[in-house]
Each structure stands twice: as C-alpha cells, then as structure tokens.
C-alpha cells in the first residue's frame, strides 16, 4: 500500500484563512487512515479550496522535503 502525503499537511500552513484552524500531521498515512486520524483528533481532512491557497502553499512549503500532495479519486 502506497502512503500518501495528507492534504492536511499542505493545508496546515494556511493559517491566514479566517475561521479555520489547520494542523500539521507529518507522518505518512493512506487516505482511510488519514481521514480516521483527522476525524478522531480534529474534525476532518482539510482541502485546498482556491488558487490563492495553492499559491500560499507554494510560497510556504519545501516540496523537495515533503514530496507530493496525495489525491483520492471517488468512484460513483
């Protein structure tokens, strides 16, 4: 099973978004484990909601150290 970097890891640094609080979880988890962990400890996985969020991430994160953002596809 391939571990993915949690979206919450990326979103954790976006502390400038009013009304939201993000937490950095640096340990790799698959999607299901990440979601369970976040729901147990916090609320749920965070999501990037705008191009401004992506731009802020690119300025604040060292992608060479973090790796890639994980992506999860939902089948209908």
TrEMBL record:
<feature type="signal peptide">
    <location>
        <begin position="1"/>
        <end position="19"/>
    </location>
</feature>
<dbReference type="InterPro" id="IPR016186">
    <property type="entry name" value="C-type_lectin-like/link_sf"/>
</dbReference>
<protein>
    <recommendedName>
        <fullName>C-type lectin domain-containing protein</fullName>
    </recommendedName>
</protein>
<keyword id="KW-0732">Signal</keyword>
<dbReference type="InterPro" id="IPR016187">
    <property type="entry name" value="CTDL_fold"/>
</dbReference>
